[in-house]
Amino acid sequence: MKKILSLSILGLFACFCANAQTPEFVSTEPSNKNVIIEEFTGINCGYCPMGHKAVREYEEANPGRAFGINIHQGIYASAYTTQWGNAIANQTGLSGYPSGTVNRHVFSGTTTAIHPADCAQYADIIKEQSSFVNVAAQATIDAETRTLTIDVEAYYTADAETGMNLLNVALLQDSIIGTQSGSSYNPEQVTSDGQYIHMNMLRDLITGQWGDTIQVEEGVIPAGTLFQKTYTYQIPTIISNEPVKLTHLNLVVFITKDKQEIYTGSKCIPTVENIPPTGINVAAEGLTVENLLGCNDLIKPTLTVSNIGRNITSMQIEYSSDVTPAQVFDWTGNLPFEQIMNIELPEISTTVGSATNVSAKILTVDGEAVESTPVTISVNKDAPKEAKGDKLKVIIKTDQYAYETSWAIKDANGNVIAEKSYNAQVVTRDTVEVPISELACYVFEIMDEYGDGGATYSVFDGSNNRIIYGSGGTYKDYKGIDIQVTTLVALQEAEGAIIQTLAYPNPANDKLNLEISMAQSSTANISVVDMLGREVIRLGDINLTTGNNLIEINTSSLNSGAYFVKIMSNDGITSKKIAINR
């Protein structure tokens, strides 16, 4: 058995195991070639996700035999590029994107470039061919120092074709979340919020542009040759403006004849060791809120937590808003090193119609107190759309994919009052009137299944006032809007004793003037209700005379926010929206 010592170090620290006589982990049994698919791509390439999907599906169908390397370069790559990609692509003869190579082999003509959709048929050819060399790697990452140590072994089960080969060690990163044109062509790699999950992304070539040399002085590399080498690599925190997560890294090692033909390769997932004993980073990830529907003042905060230390199994999280005092939420679960988790917190109140600050911070991690900076955002929860009359009219104009659009009107408990979806693959215009029989809160929901929005939509109340309007792309995959029906009498039907109602100043502070103009004397029951329909001020029955009637309402007990003055008379029920601003 002959030991080959390469002198090519390429700027990295390398050591040779000169005393080793037998392989430690590489197979010495003859085997067929493994497949290395290099894919050339970019985030602005609309058809490239088709290639990503084809490569991923081939990998999944051939575990341990096929390995993809996703190389961002060329005219469509505005991010994630490396110093290595262009040179690799330039030798392929590619003429468009997406494009790729299978073991850098020429299958027809004079170039190695093929369309990724064709990679399966060519890869099947390669993996049935025998290989005279096996290659394998083992690796560890010291998380505290960010040092990657790689042990590589290549064993020749037969004579090589030449006296020199090249060993390549490629550093890849998985699960990079970002943008990607044409992501709908590969929906399995699209997140719930429409981002794209990039896999097998080339981050660096540890052995340089074309690899490290395996060479004998004369003749071909003989059967029984064992090549062993150890590389150390300092992992940057950021490559091409993208954070490098240690637990998302993997290595593909492969042997080439020269800069072109790849004989075989294998994959290695490093073991991460020496993880720091503690660490939590909340502020860098942030806080979001969901506005809860149902004509209420409630929101649901979500705190995004990133763990930069040991596994975490419990946390105490303090959260509050300007109108809700601090509360503590006890979270239990499992948050591993370098993982990100969205933690939904219980609902809290805000001030409807005006800005409210919401804050959250971590108090303890696994029972130990931690110092963390509160994350604070400003939330503005819109007041419900006010509707008058005993019906709602929905007018929809879809894009050319009408079958993607659906809508519904529900009550505050989620019960469907009316709903409709469309089947056509053409622009569709539709008008639907929905009877309303109760003074209550309703929710209008509209959804586009594809997520790019339709054309336009409108909702009119029974007084023919347009209370909701949206144009193309504004509702994406889902949009919900609250509607508060304040009177079942339409404006054109309300020409009774009450001629006009004014409320001023609006916004008010401690006092509100309510001016009611009457065509004839009548009695009205007057109250103030909040956005949930709860009565907060009761004036009771008020005698109103012909002409103007001025009623002073003491609002000093009300918090800032939106309210309705409700007037019940023989004409029906009407209301006036007011705001309190302190």
Automatic annotation (TrEMBL):
Give the record's keywords alphabetically.
Answer: Signal
The signal peptide, as residue positions, is 1-20
Short name of any one Pfam family annotated for the protein: Omp28
Query: Is-annotated flag, keyword Signal?
Result: yes
Q: Which InterPro entries match?
A: Ig-like_fold, Omp28, Secre_tail, Thioredoxin-like_sf
Supply the name of the protein: Omp28-related outer membrane protein
The record places domain Secretion system C-terminal sorting at 504-580
